[in-house]
Fold these 2 entries.
Entry 1:
Amino acid sequence: MTPLLDRLSRHGKDPELGAISAIHSGNIGDVIYALPTVRTLGVSHLLLNVCEDPGAGGRVLTEAMAGSLVSLLLDQPTIDTVDVVAAPIRVGGGFGYQARVSNLVSGLPLEHVSASVLGVDYVLDRFRLQPLERRHLVHAHAMAFGCRVDPARAWIDRTTAMAPERRIAVSVTPRYRNRSNERLAEILEGFGPVTLIGFRSELPNYFGIEGELREFTDAKELAVFLAECSVFVGAASFPSAIAEAMKIPRLVDLAGGLINAFPAGPNGWAMPEDSQEARHLLDGLARGDRSVASRVKSTVKSVTPAAVSTRRFTLEWQQAEGELIGTHRASAEAVLGRAPTRVRVDVPRMVDRPAGFALTVDARIGALEISNLRCVEGSKTIWTARFAEDLSVGGEAMLSSPPGVLRWLMAEDGADRVLLKVPDEILTRFRDVEASIVFDCRAPREREITQWTAREIVALGGALSRERANAERIQADLSLAHQKQADLEHRLRSVQASTSWRVTAPLRAVMGALRTGRGGAGHGE
């Protein structure tokens, strides 16, 4: 074990020499969504890093939580060893004694720490560096390492051979939910029996929902119970992640903000807004009715897919020092639609270091979104555009977007050019190897473009109102300062025009001469 990490406990057998290892710092649901990538990478030695940073990002993986995962993880086909470890870092809020007793962060998140420093092969925390908005967490983990996984297929085997009981498992938390308890109670009425999953301290989360509370301290025990239930109902949570991994029939209440843990594959449905539609779905899922989709088809509006078209992307650069846009070009074509399409532009080996890259998009389709842009050597990623400032578009058409994602409205004429702010040390590598620029691109539908634009208008309107208020305050302060200046100037002119000022003029002249004479004598001495 590398000295950076303290091993708290080991479970399973000791890892063999050369065993592939990976580390994850939670949350526990994220660990479940990482398992398809763990299997694809052939990881046999999994390390769980105890990390608590509720004040700096909302991530929590306590030693007890990590221990509750062990038995389920050791059941996975590639995992032979599970270590619970901790990075000995404590960040306190406050000073002196107060900082020692009130930890803001306990443990060290590892997405920015090199795997070689930690002594492992993979740092699974790097999924947090991927654009996460409306991208499934299974895909986010895989994309961090260039893997291909299928979230529509079960990745945890059901641990019971018994037929599911007509029992509904319910899990809700204060986070990542949309509907109130009253709405959930309305949807669940008449179905049952209902088991509420959680600890006694979490009972207030379920006020208004009838059911029997059941506590689970072991993930494998929870998985066995869920496999025996006919349906899972609830918000995105740890039980929801296990239900998703086993593809148990599930009806998930998706939050209105960041959506990245949604149902994928068979038997999984997002809870409809209308309670009656939700009850239709729940009835079909509880019955195990394979025709559940047709049962509610008449109440679900069909949407005609947006037209797709082939678009051309041209990468331009100037070698050595010079203008960014030069005569060197490489191109790629892609068929764009509402779903992200992978675009890869291969760059030939260069004689000299490029000054930078610009991507020209030939697309007149209203708006575009580029995400997960990176430089790669073969299958190895050498740089990822993680922040909004890593990408920029000339003109006035940029829209607010999450880090690493670029959204903009297309200009009416001429090609739009995206500037890639690649670090100098990465640009130098293009001189020595054949590399590529890879990114995901999609053309959103008109309704989504309208929502983007409306949010942008509201945000800009609010910012403009705040700046106007600041300008008014500054103008008021400036007016007050001008008034004070005018008052002082008036008082000065009044004094200078007074008889007393003229009478004392000779005395002031003599005093000034004496001060000058003393200063001169002193200087001469």
Entry 2:
Amino acid sequence: MWRLRTYVKPYLATIVTVMALVFLEVMATLKLPDLMSDIVDQGIARGNIPLIWSTGGIMLAVALAGVLCAVAGNFLASRASTRFGRDLRFDIFSKVGKFAPREFNKFGTASLITRTTNDVQQVQQIFHMSMRMAMRAPLMAVGGVLMVVRKDSNLALILLGLIPVIGLVITYVIVKGVPLFKSLQKKLDRLNLVLREQLMGVRVIRAFDRGSREQERFDDSNRDLTETALKVNRLMVTLLPLLGLIVNFTNIVIIWFAARRIDLGAMQVGDLMAFLQYTMQVFMAVMMLSMIFVMLPRASASAERIIEVLDTEVSITDPKEPETIESNLGIVRFEDVTFSYPGAAKPVLSNITFTAHPGQTTAIIGGTGSGKSTILDLIPRFHDPEEGQITLDGVDIRSLTQRELRSRLGYVPQKAVLFSGTVASNIRGGKQDATDEEVMEAARVAQATEFIKERDDGYESYISQGGTNVSGGQKQRLSIARAVVRKPKVYLLDDTFSALDYKTDARLRTDLAKSAENATIIVVAQRVSTIFHADQIIVLDEGKIVGQGTHETLSRDCAVYQEIVASQFGEEAVS
């Protein structure tokens, strides 16, 4: 947990202030038993009413000072810990935002969500408790012991003898609790994973009548988490009752011996009351420390998981001395590019070489698993090639900052992704400062104007998370509009017309060609009809280019392309 100290530094002034307030609060609290002893021995026992009133007034003032210090300290500690959690969550989110798919696969989405929320909350709680209890408890314990020894050193031996016993009990709980808390967080990850899969795949689950099976999966994960949580709670709940038993037993022993000393005249009744108060303060301090020690194992486990994310080396990084593009034409060139996914037996792409020019459409087609989408993923640097290079206007894309590279690209993924908000806000995802006219023009090019106008609120119509309240074709058109509105130099369209009917497909391609007449368009397609008029068609088979040219030349010379055309239009279309 100490490795998170960099997040604590901005709040050092607040922490020092809290410590000062806690010190004043403790001093005020330690003063009260002595004042109570004076009232009993000097006031009540002797009938000294003025002393009772004056000492009682001092007690009220001391108590009020303690309350004010406690309120101020708690307010500052709460504010500092909340902002600490805010900063930590922001940095985790920023770090995750830089992750490549390789890092995402390492952790998993469900685990990253848990680490950003639950784990940060655990660390935030221990940070708040540390500023209050971790400062107050030692002062209370040391101060209480000193005051007990001052009151009666003989009785103090009873108290001092039990402190090591309490330490052993707390140590046992910590040693047993740490591995359980680590296991608990991992099982919480698992539960989040199952729940997320079920929520996202609810339609598939219903369609295949998998509800009962998914309920069993959730029940298994839920029971596993519950059993571990019960083990943890059984261990932790024994701590406070056990400490309470020790406290009460100690009080009985103290009263027994103190009564005999009072009977012999070696001790006053007021001193006994003060002694018991100081004893309770010592044990309250021990109770507070035990609460911290109970929380510490889980917070420690959470801190390790957070540090694991923050310390992860990102595989895709910006160069130390980035280059800039001067021509801004949008020429994309692959030069002997080879790429493999982690753990793959063989490369998914091998020796890929081609050039996509501005004002032209380059189409990529091939069988399933041939590497079509991977080519598009390499251009925005979602992955980096193992061999060869990819250049944009003659500059290796690895020499550019990711921001500059991606600012020149308009990417439409194979699976259309929309965000909660409005139609306009989703289109403006490609250009935040786009005017209403630019948004409407992008929607027109993407053939989305008709269905947008049919909605009650038009461009201000609400889009639910993931775009679940629009059809697949509508999601694709809004995703295309999001790319069009930024007017990029390079369009990357990953099978983005698959959910469109042929008429809409044709109109969209025509309007897009006019809107992006000076841009480079790279299209991944499954349907041959989508790429008939492409200036260049690249045919992939098992990660290699087996054909390159126009539809006419490939229909004549490329056997793989002929098979694709024949499968979609029949043998007569090839001849």
